[in-house]
Amino acid sequence: MFEAHIDNTQLNNLVKDLELTERQLLNIAKKVFKMSAKDFAKKVIKRANSEYQISQKKLKERIRQYVINDLTIKIFNGFYRVGLTHWRARQIGKIRKGGKRRKNGRGGVEFGAAGQRQFRPGAFIYTSKKKDGSPGGKVAFKRTGSARLPIQKQVADIDDAITPILESEVDNFYSTFSARFDKECIKYLGKS
Questions:
Q1: Where does residue 91 fall: left (phi above 0), alpha (psi -120 to 50 degrees), or beta otherwise?
Q2: How many Å is the Cα radius of gyration of the chain?
Q3: DSSP 3-state assignment of 177?
Q4: How far apart are CA 29 and CA 13, in angstroms?
């Protein structure tokens, strides 16, 4: 969980020479904070999608942002795992050839972004079918023993990928807030 907030000392540093009342400054800060907070989660999701090739749909489900009070937000990325097929997984080789296992075969599932791809040996991608017989979603599985069943769904943690992005975006959040705050103050003074 990450937290971003603006306190009175940060506001005072931004508005040294402006002739605005404290109430006017607080109203401008609340407006700018809400605009910046909306963009924060979107930036994290877009950046994680471009760097790690994780589907945006799953990231939107996992990364949540809550406004605690007027000038504080908390971001939860949770301790979630995401199925390999949401990491742009693809089948590599075949696990079985005929009725026998391949010796020294490289059968499995490869997932992740280019240059950071990971490999799960022995895994395979299965396309499920809906009740009406049409193709459904793809899921990566791996057999837990030497028999055909049981199989286990293959997942990966998103925490290692998301945490550095959240840390860098929290730093960017403050610079974005100060730039927007300056623009809003200039607009407000121009109206007066």
A1: beta
A2: 24
A3: helix
A4: 13
Q: Give the separation between CA 81 and CA 88, rounded to whole angstroms.
A: 15
3-state secondary structure labels for all residues of 44-104:
HHHHHHHHHCCCHHHHHHHCEEEEEECCEEEEECCCCEEEHHHHCCEEECCCEECCEECCC
pTM for the structure as a whole: 0.64
d(CA 190, CA 192): 6
pLDDT in tens, 1-57: 566 667 666 666 665 556 667 777 778 888 888 888 778 888 888 988 888 888 888
The H or E element that residue 111 is part of is: strand 108-111
Taking the C-alpha atoms of residue 114 and residue 152, their distance in angstroms, rounded to an integer, is 26
- The pLDDT tens digits for 99-143 are 444 445 568 888 887 777 888 888 888 888 888 888 878 888 998
